[in-house]
Amino acid sequence: MPDITLYTLPTANNAKISSLLELLNISYEYRFLDVSKMEHKEPWFLKICPNGRIPAIIDHRRNNFAVWESGAIMLYLAENYDTEGRYLPKDPKARSEVIQWIFFVNTGLALTLGQLSHFLNNAPEQVPYAIQRYSDEVTRLFKVLEDRLEGREYLVGNTLTIADINALPVVRTTVVVGFTLAPFPRLQAWTERVRADPQILKSLRPPSGEPDMIEQLEQDITKKEVIFGPSRKIIEQQFKQERILLAQYCNV
Ligand SMILES: N[C@@H](CCC(=O)N[C@@H](CS)C(=O)NCC(=O)O)C(=O)O
User: Fold this and answer.
1) Where is the signal peptide (predicted)?
2) Is the CB of 166 inside a 6 Å radius of any atom of ligand 1?
3) Is residue 38 part of a domain?
4) Number of CB atoms found within 10 A of residue 208's CB
5) Which atom of ligand 1 is nearest to 71's Cα?
6) By alpha-carbon position, which residue is closest to atom 11 of ligand 1?
7) Does any ligand 1 atom lie closer than 6 A to the CB of residue 53?
């Protein structure tokens, strides 16, 4: 049996975890959840991840311990499996910086890109205010990364850390929201640098090795509708089901 089971969907958040598992040479298996059947909201999965979202892992080496929230998973894997501190420095200040950049990406950039993608690709109606608000915020957050990368090759220190591994799959989703990194040359160069690592490149793809959704869009943006059309229906259906559940619990 592999050491880790990774519960996931083929999304950006998945790649963060599989990248680190690959780099640390940890044996793992994928367990893809079927969102169209709301599998990620089923009671058995809520016992693993109370938030009913992916990614989540089970560590079979440590008595089937469950970890969820991608940032928490990155830290857990580094603390338990990266004993040499290759990707999470042992020096407390450098370590704190890594944690700061993980929080910044997960609570700011990932969330904002997700909302922008929702309003551009999934919302049943166009809401210009929302699109403007989230586009401006994505631009601002990219500028924060651009400034950080002045005179440095990686987000913290001189080597690849989980700060970069966590950020890359999120920054890559720019293509989904029609952004280009051209105004952010340092961020663009960093993306290429981090992605050049063969294990990271491998983990950005699903187990079949086929190009993932982002890579397909980078090659041919006209595929956007083919990719987002079906997911729009799933999101609509999910929205209705979540409303029923919320009405039961909170009377909304
Ligand atoms: N803050 C969470 C975000 C998790 C998240 O939003 N996951 C998305 C996929 S990237 C998901 O599970 N979506 C399914 C849903 O919302 O029902 C993390 O970083 O793990």
Assistant:
1) none
2) no
3) yes
4) 7
5) 19
6) 53
7) yes
Is 70 part of any domain?
yes
Q: How many CB atoms lie within 10 A of CB 191?
A: 19
Report how far residue 106's alpha carbon sits from residue 100's, in angstroms, rounded to the nearest whole number.
10
* CATH number, domain with residue 13: 3.40.30.10
Domain assignment of residue 64, yes or no: yes
Cβ of residue 9 lying under 6 Å from some atom of ligand 1: yes
pLDDT of residue 89: 97
For the Cβ of 106 lying below 6 angstroms from any atom of ligand 1, the answer is yes
Distance of CA 54 from the midpoint of ligand 1 (Å): 5
Range of the domain at 24: 4-81
Distance CA 249, CA 252 (A): 8
| Cα–Cα dist 58/4, whole Å | 6
Domain assignment of residue 31, yes or no:
yes
Predicted pLDDT at 233? 75
Give the Å distance between the CA of 82 and the centre of ligand 1: 25
Mean pLDDT per segment of 10 residues, for the chain of length 252 residues? 92 84 94 89 96 96 97 98 96 98 97 95 92 97 98 96 96 91 97 91 78 83 77 77 80 62
Whether the CB of 54 sits within 6 Å of ligand 1: yes
Q: How many domains does the chain have?
A: 1
| Pocket flag, ligand 1, residue 14 (CB < 6 Å) | no
